[in-house]
Design a protein that fits this description.
5-stranded antiparallel beta sheet, 5 helices, 34% strand, globular
Length: 238
């Protein structure tokens, strides 16, 4: 097989494989195109691709790591101007850095900003190994108890414990990654701690890994590719 072209890509996660099969082989090595002189349509396509890449990376992190908390951070207008993107980013980064030091860099997180319709900035995160205190509330949302992270002094938190459905969690977090955040700032659309695992990626190895795509494994298809998912055998018989 010619190694200069990619026919399929396999991503291996702890409990599953994701297979992408290209209908037309892709060149493995290509030169990045210049951004000069791009029209509005090209720029829109670049933004759309960038958003897809961000969603894919966030999904990869969530599927490759164990998180036990989903947290929404809302800023108190008496402490932070929640319409000031830079101020909100600074406070959020400051809080994350403190928690990482307290946890001796054991805390894991993926965090995504959201801009509400009124312009206020919020953050949504999946977290594990959180080192601070957790306060139980009397609030029930979606049949789940709501908790607060007492270490967040810049506003309010809504924390709920996650179940084991990583696919659902990944989809829920990724919905906050939109092109709207791109037009607000040049900052990243998500942050991830440096201690996260990533999926193992294989090129043109679907046959060697005994991954046989069919209609049962198909999750997505367009004119360019098919995407398939396979549970690992050890998971099926666990």
């Amino acid at each position: 097989m010619n190694d200069s072209f990619i026919n399929n890509i396999v991503k291996e996660y702890p409990s599953m494989y994701k297979l992408t099969v290209f209908k037309f082989p892709k060149a493995r090595y290509s030169t990045a195109s210049s951004k000069k002189g791009k029209d509005n349509r090209s720029q829109e396509l670049d933004i759309a691709r960038s958003v897809r890449r961000s969603r894919m990376m966030v999904s990869d992190y969530i599927l490759s790591n164990d998180f036990d908390m989903f947290v929404t951070f809302t800023f108190n207008p008496k402490k932070v101007n929640r319409y000031d993107l830079n101020a909100c980013y600074f406070k959020m980064q400051s809080w994350l850095s403190r928690q990482q030091r307290k946890s001796e860099n054991m805390m894991k997180y993926v965090i995504v900003p959201e801009k509400h319709k009124d312009g206020a900035i919020h953050f949504h995160a999946v977290i594990s190994n959180y080192p601070g205190l957790i306060k139980k509330t009397n609030v029930i949302q979606n049949n789940r108890r709501v908790y607060n992270l007492t270490s967040f002094r810049f506003g309010f938190t809504n924390m709920q414990y996650l179940d084991d459905d990583k696919q659902k969690v990944a989809a829920y977090v990724c919905k906050y990654i939109t092109k709207d955040m791109v037009t607000v700032s040049n900052r990243r659309r998500y942050w991830a701690s440096k201690n996260l695992q990533k999926p193992v990626k294989y090129y043109n190895e679907a046959n060697n890994l005994s991954l046989d795509p069919d209609l049962h494994s198909l999750t997505f298809e367009n004119q360019y590719l098919q995407m398939h998912e396979f549970e690992k055998l050890e998971q099926l018989f666990a």
